[in-house]
């Protein structure tokens, strides 16, 4: 059986790629959270300004539908990002399992190779010991005649 090192290397690269992708998605989540916080801070500032005059209150009232639309868009983007992150996590877990499967198969192959080598060495040593024993018996038998 050939070595699985090439397949292991391939799967390690795939795991690394999937980790990078998940990291990118988490970075997007952080940026989206920051944007949401900045937006909410801006809305709060606008709300406070709307209390200073009637004109500002009317302007803020006309701005409310846009606030709702923007909040909905941000929430939709967040939900889509969460779905993408969940898929990326599942893909990473699956890739990691495949990598482990190949690593375990390689370890088992190496273990079997070592066991076979040890078996052959033991057979060879047994053969040498048997030949030595036969020679000793022959030498001992020749001296008696």
Automatic annotation (TrEMBL):
Q: Which Pfam families match?
A: FliJ
Q: Which InterPro entries match?
A: Flag_assembly_chemotaxis_eff (IPR053716), Flagell_FliJ (IPR012823)
Supply one GO CC term from the record: bacterial-type flagellum
Q: What is its main location?
A: membrane
Instruction: Choose any GO biological process term that the UniProt entry carries and state it.
Output: bacterial-type flagellum organization
Q: Organism's domain of life?
A: Bacteria
| Localization in the cell | Cell membrane
Q: How does it sit in the membrane?
A: Peripheral membrane protein
Residue ranges the record marks as coiled coil: 8-42, 71-105
Q: Which UniProt keywords apply?
A: Bacterial flagellum biogenesis, Bacterial flagellum protein export, Cell membrane, Chemotaxis, Coiled coil, Membrane, Protein transport, Transport
The family database entries (Gene3D superfamilies) matched by this protein are listed as: 1.10.287.1700
Q: Does the keyword Ribonucleoprotein apply?
A: no
According to its UniProt record, which protein family does this protein belong to? Belongs to the FliJ family.
The name under which this protein is listed is: Flagellar FliJ protein
Originating species: Nitrospirillum viridazoti CBAmc
